[in-house]
Design goal:
It contains 10 helices and 5 strands. The chain has about 210 residues and is an alpha/beta fold.
């Protein structure tokens, strides 16, 4: 029996994972959380083997949360789930200690396979992401400035580069437009850029549109 803990701020997503676990006799849900700090509190004593973690959940920054999970619960395998396609964000998650990365658009059978693999001590990535990881490892020290961005900053960069406005991004992340404006300022500073047009050009030149 694999004991799983579900951490996602969307009730319908948690309900979907619960239903999936109920239909598989090898899985048992031992806890749920909708926010990062609540997750750290509830995970204590839960006996979870695998944590299904939404990358965009409110609370501590994603990398900071992964670091705390790794330090406080080294026995728990973390499987990251995200609405974002595999790419730089997935690589950041794996480098920060996640055991696997799946998108919410994947088939239920893929999620079950991912849970089983990370529980067995392996890592789960799709063939396309495995190829990108291999390229990143063989390319030597990363030179792209965007690798210094936090996962949230990277998400904002890609959305701005895709033509989304601060207001649209704020609505998607359920924060105020001023928060997105702050992220934008940080991104411009870290990437040594000046305008949104520069951001769009950077995203295209570095093939971050996916």
């Amino acid at each position: 029996m694999i004991r799983i803990f579900i951490a996602d701020d969307h009730h319908l997503i948690r309900a979907g994972f619960r239903q999936l676990a109920a239909e598989d006799h090898t899985l048992r849900v031992v806890g749920e959380a909708a926010e990062g700090h609540d997750l750290l509190r509830k995970l204590e004593g839960s006996g979870a083997d695998v944590l299904i973690l939404d990358i965009g959940m409110p609370g501590p920054g994603f990398l900071a949360l992964l670091a705390q999970l790794k330090q406080r619960f080294p026995q728990v395998r973390v499987l990251v789930v995200s609405m974002h396609p595999e790419g730089e964000l997935a690589i950041q998650a794996l480098r920060a200690g996640a055991a696997g990365y799946v998108t919410k658009t994947e088939a239920p059978t893929d999620l079950l396979a991912a849970v089983a693999k990370v529980h067995a001590g392996g890592r789960y990535v799709s063939p396309s992401l495995a190829e990108r990881l291999a390229e990143a490892l063989t390319a030597g020290p990363p030179g792209q400035a965007h690798r210094a961005l936090s996962p949230r900053e990277y998400q904002v960069l890609c959305l701005l580069g895709g033509g989304k406005t601060n207001k649209q991004i704020a609505a998607a992340f359920r924060v105020g437009p001023k928060t997105i404006s702050t992220y934008r300022s940080r991104i411009l500073r870290k990437l040594d850029l000046k305008t949104n047009a520069d951001l769009v050009r950077y995203v295209i030149e570095h093939d971050l549109t996916n």
